[in-house]
Write a structure and sequence with these properties.
It contains 10 helices and 2 strands; from the N terminus they run H-H-H-H-H-H-H-H-E-E-H-H. With 262 residues, the protein is an all-alpha fold. The chain has one domain. It has a two-stranded antiparallel ribbon. Strand 1 and strand 2 form a beta hairpin. Helix 1 packs antiparallel against helix 2. The model has no long low-confidence stretch (mean pLDDT 89).
Length: 262
């Protein structure tokens, strides 16, 4: 029961952060889930379970976010159709590679990525779309989508910290970039979730109430919490000091990354 309460708190934090800053869902959920699973299930593949459950929890929030952006006409569906198939291929490859890696390897990989994102967010290191610049067309099958899907599936994130800078580099307006990035998060989460269910279907050491690597009690707790707090975060997005909040989030990610490395 204490573990589920903690997971609800983590989900609430992830949902609020995602609504407030447009990032942080998987980056918050994965290390917390890995910690809880390690304490609760001896001998279980805790990092695989954490990544898979995080991706599964992102599916409904990504769907809701995509629909909200679509209603405002902000999603560039042409970009989604070009990135989407490549992302799906990358996700499938990422799940396959992750299945061959040990928990310590996945932990180190996540820790390094968390430190990189901490630098990116803390120092606002991302391309800026120049006013009046022409949007660069994406390739029909975009290799960047494969890279985004592969890394996102191995880390357990919706890919916003990868897709957003890439689309800005391709000179998309920030409003369309955020919306299109959210839409691209849906195939990442859905294909990744399905892949981890299949990959872990006959896995050893998995607890009851698991479908492959997805652990349902934690998943349901996360979905309830994130869907409740994401709109609240969005409501406060223009009321709280964004720069200070981003730096605090970056510092938290840095602490998480260093702790996981050690």
């Amino acid at each position: 029961m204490d573990s589920l309460i903690f997971i609800v708190f983590v989900g609430a934090t992830a949902g609020f952060t995602a609504g407030l800053l447009g990032l942080g869902g998987g980056l918050v959920m994965v290390p917390a889930l890995a910690y809880v699973f390690d304490k609760q299930f001896s001998g279980a593949p805790v990092m695989h379970m954490a990544v898979a459950t995080s991706l599964a929890a992102i599916v409904p929030t990504a769907a809701a976010s995509t629909w909200a952006h679509h209603r405002r006409g902000a999603v560039l569906w042409g970009d989604v159709t070009r990135l989407g198939p490549a992302i799906a291929v990358g996700v499938a490859a990422g799940v396959s590679i992750a299945g061959q890696l040990t928990t310590p390897m996945l932990i180190r990989g996540f820790a390094i990525y968390a430190l990189v994102v901490a630098l990116q967010v803390g120092f606002e290191l991302r391309p800026v779309a120049r006013p009046g610049a022409d949007m660069q067309p994406l390739p029909r099958v975009d290799p960047a989508g494969i890279a985004i899907g592969l890394l996102s599936a191995m880390i357990g994130i919706g890919g916003g910290t990868l897709t957003t800078p890439y689309l800005l580099w391709r000179r998309r307006p920030i409003r369309n970039t955020v919306a299109t990035s959210a839409a691209c998060g849906l195939p990442i989460a859905a294909v990744g979730c399905a892949g981890y269910i299949i990959a872990g279907w006959n896995g050893s050491g998995l607890p009851p109430w698991s479908s492959g690597y997805v652990y349902w009690p934690a998943l349901l707790a996360l979905i309830i919490a994130t869907t409740a707090t994401a709109p609240l975060g969005a409501r406060y997005a223009h009321r709280l000091p964004e720069k200070a909040l981003k730096r605090a989030f970056a510092a938290l990610l840095a602490v998480i990354g260093i702790k996981m490395l050690l």
